Amino acid sequence: MLSRALVLRVAEFPAFKRWIKHSSLTQGLIQRFIAGEDVDTAIAIAHQLNQEGFLVALDYLGEDTHRLEDAEQAACQYITLLERIAQSQVNSCISIKLTQLGLDLGYEIARKNLEKVLAAAQSLNNFVWIDMESSKHTQPILDLFCELYPRYPNSGTVLQSYLYRTPQDLERLIHLGARVRLVKGAYAEPKEVAYPDKKSVDHQFKVQMELLLEQGKEPAIATHDLRLINHAKQYAAELGLEKSQYEFQLLYGISRELQKQLLAEGYRTLIYVPYGEQWYPYFSRRLAERPANLYFILRSLFRK
Ligand SMILES: Cc1cc2nc3c(=O)[nH]c(=O)nc-3n(C[C@H](O)[C@H](O)[C@H](O)COP(=O)(O)OP(=O)(O)OC[C@H]3O[C@@H](n4cnc5c(N)ncnc54)[C@H](O)[C@@H]3O)c2cc1C
After folding, report:
1. Which residues are marked as active site?
2. CB under 6 Å to ligand 1: residues?
């Protein structure tokens, strides 16, 4: 059985990367997970999803930016995206990564860029989700988010149930009154900081989800795990929550039947739609979550 860490390590090999990017065998899977490389395609897909009844979060892909001009450029791209959303009247918020906005170059750089994006979103009456990244970034991401939240309450952030620290972070964000998207976590983390086994991660998710439903502001339950989704529905109903008081969030291209089913049952359902040329790291995390995706393309390679 391939572990997440191993798949992510293999995904870093230059030859593997080249093959994934250019082979005709992988294009179908890439298109399944990535909405396209340009903003027009992403807006068209968001529009289509809106027509079906879904809410959308657009993610202009990119992370680990190491040049100041690239970080500033990413902030500009997000502001343009917010303007395009407003002009096209698509019902979509945005989801961003702080390493894309220069977090590795310095806290102040990321803050300056983030603030520009948050201010643009506020003036356009839109909402910004700040994605969570690898554990070395958790503290600065949360610090930056908590610092800016009082001025920009049109924002929310993400907590990963696999991290040991998450219960304290969840208390902090509930106390702040901010929206939280709860996920299991998609990075390869050492066992010193994160639960290494799925059973514990799922258990943590359940416990944290219950607390979020009890005390959180419009909780976002971001998983494709049917058991956890069913538990969320049942627990929310026991708490007397309306379906409009919390939200399920799922990734573009994953568990599409489940997405439609949630919508048909009247649940608020948001689809996270990634697009852009820098799709490779996002795509490799999707491969690592479900090694069957990797087996699928490797099998087609050997069948050729
Ligand atoms: C809206 C949204 C936003 C997210 N934002 C972040 C973030 O900011 N930071 C972060 O670390 N992680 C983020 N994630 C990813 C998350 O951490 C998990 O890695 C991912 O959701 C897979 O876990 P799961 O909860 O679906 O449960 P799992 O137990 O992994 O999967 C449950 C079922 O979902 C299906 N499934 C899951 N993944 C795949 C896949 N890749 N391909 C095909 N089927 C699949 C399978 O049927 C699987 O049995 C986000 C996820 C969502 C849905």
Report:
1. 131, 181
2. 131-132, 158, 160, 183-187, 222-225, 249-251, 254-255, 272, 286, 289-290, 293
Helix residue ranges, H only, the chain: 4-11, 14-22, 27-33, 39-52, 68-88, 107-123, 138-148, 166-176, 198-215, 226-239, 256-264, 280-289, 291-303
Closest approach atom of ligand 1 to CA 293 = 42
Domain annotation for the chain: domains and CATH numbers: 1-34+279-304 (no CATH), 35-278 (3.20.20.220)
Those residues with Cβ within 8 angstroms of residue 198's Cβ, 6 or more apart along the chain or in another chain: none
**Tokens 């087996």, residue?**
295
pLDDT digits (tens, 9 = 90+) for 230-254: 999 999 999 999 999 999 999 999 9
What pTM does this model have?
0.95
CA of 259 to the centre of ligand 1 (A): 13
Q: pLDDT tens-digit profile of 178-234? A: 999 999 999 999 999 999 999 999 999 999 999 999 999 999 999 999 999 999 999
Ligand 1 atom index nearest CA of 97 = 8
* Residue nearest ligand 1's atom 30 by CA: 289
How far apart are the CA of 69 and the centre of ligand 1, in A?
31
